[in-house]
Amino acid sequence: MHNLYAIFAKFHEICKRFSKNLVNEHGNVSRRGVVPRFSDLEVVALNLTAEALSIDSENYLFHKLAEYRSSFPNLISRRQYNDRRKITAPLCESIRKNVAMEIDGDEEMFCIDSKPIEVCRIARARRCKMGREHETSPGYGYCASQCSYCYGYKLHAICGLSGVIHSYDLTKAAVHDINYLNDVKWEYHDCSIFGDRGYISKSVQLDLFETANIKLEVPYRLNQKDWKPQFIPFAKARKRIETTFSQLTDRFMMIRNYAKQEDGLFARVIGKISAFTCLQYLNYINNRPIGRVKYALI
Predict the structure, then answer these.
(1) Residue 144 CB neighbours (<10 A)
(2) Is the full-model pTM beyond 0.90?
């Protein structure tokens, strides 16, 4: 196991560097009440450290932190950490966006895809109480690439050709991929986006081009009248986001879920993607291949 405090210090430095105008001089988001001794930036850095080390159990995390008690004199309890991680999720996401812009803010070509985030097995779906009384409740969906049904959410993401995720969103599993493009046209402009056959729609392609000058490149279906083979570089470029999803699944265990409430699940997803982006940043400043996140902490 790596030195946990040394890794925490690296992430804390990144958080301080990219959180200007987001926190006050104590490293906290300005709000009423007692000033916490363990700052919001330290909570975010500890969350990123746990995700980078593939520690998805808070019980195990605080068991390891007991070995570094002298290095964390103001460490909060496990319950406080769980609550404050949810509260600081927007701060974590803002820092992640700043880091992504630092790595490749001038990117003009992007890849888009989606991935199911399962909450529980289909057999247990009726007993699942996550978000039952809210609009953000999970739902049933079908994953064509895996030929299986799932109960939970769907992660929609856009990344650059280097693999850095620029934006993402969570919807119910039944929401079609093409619906995410309605938000994309207000966030991006003058660029090209590569997607799979799930994004085929002439009306959507025309709307994106007329609204924001976005060229949506998707492969044709074999039964389409105007079928033509896909341009090979476009097909290779689109695989970049599939590699990114594979890394999130393998290294950051995106498909494993221990959350009991939807806000806890959302905070976990934000933490995993933010840790992934920060590891890419460490490779970026050390002149290493950005995608080799397993070697970023060496």
Answers:
(1) 10
(2) yes
